[in-house]
Amino acid sequence: MLVTRKFSNILTRSRTIKSSVRLFQVCVMGGASEIGQAVSLLLRTEPAVSKLVIHDTWEAAPGVVIELSHIPANSTLKGYLGEVTMKQALGSSDLVLLVGGLLKTPGVSDKACLDANMEFVKTVSSQIGRLSKMPFVGVVAEPLNSLVPMAAELMRNTGTFDGRKLFGVTTIDWIRAQTLFGTLHGMAPEECFVPVICGHSNKTTVPLISQSRPGANMTGTEIRKFVSELQRYDEIVTQAKHGKSPTVSVAYSVLVFVQGILAALSGQHAHVHAYIENNDFGTSYFSGLVQVDSNGVKEMTRYTNHISEYECQILEEALDQLRKDVATGKKILEVE
Length: 336
Fold this sequence. Notes:
Low-confidence stretches: 1-21
CATH topology of the largest domain: Rossmann fold
CATH architecture of the largest domain: 3-Layer(aba) Sandwich
Helix content: 40-55%
Number of strands: 11
Number of helices: 11
CATH superfamily of the largest domain: NAD(P)-binding Rossmann-like Domain
Largest sheet: 9 strands, mixed
């Protein structure tokens, strides 16, 4: 397994793609949500986006589109409101982002969040499945571990589906690990690479310090503290924001993901951090560094050398939880 500085360079390039030609249409479903607005703002002037489409069922959506129109950009901007316009919003899009739904905040139970976001993803996925050709799809709504498998099952049963084009956006996990690792060791974060694998939740996110580049000597206690902090970042940010969920860093991570996908669509070699359909790790879905081309997923990076005993232990525990999360998502069709 080659895990060297070249991966950091690949990912850094994907964040700074520049093009004099705008080529791609990106649709932000849930674009009037807190995260959706931040994502839309970042994409408004993204060079590779020729048309930005904003869709939401929230009545404030037209105002969001008007605000975005005040930003000077050489791209087309279009807004849609309500479920009846969803097919129009999705049509001709190269990439669709599902960023709406309910944010997990204090007072909102896991079940309430899951139920609300299942409805959001269910509605959008069913419409995507009816398109003549499936666009690339990035799911941001939580919990990814369950919602991505659910989206896949719905698309399969609705019509058009290509598993290579469905991604759960987990770039935030890599960004956090990269920054935490760099800060801890006095290194420039952009020069650091820490693989983060398995799933996308506090119980299934597994950073591999043994595979980090540059390497660093860390005691067992330091490694456990690193893992704990990374897995608790959502909680840490929410507490610091007095009950508000992370949005700014998540939006930036979505931008990084979009840049990687659009690079792949334009014929460049690209990698993204994502949660995808993958049967190689004892579960049907898995998260990690994914090589992507214009057809979608090519392969996921594997790490087989010098994995520590502690990492194997937490990975096994995470896989047990991940299998349960995946099963929850797949069961949606059993109760229809």
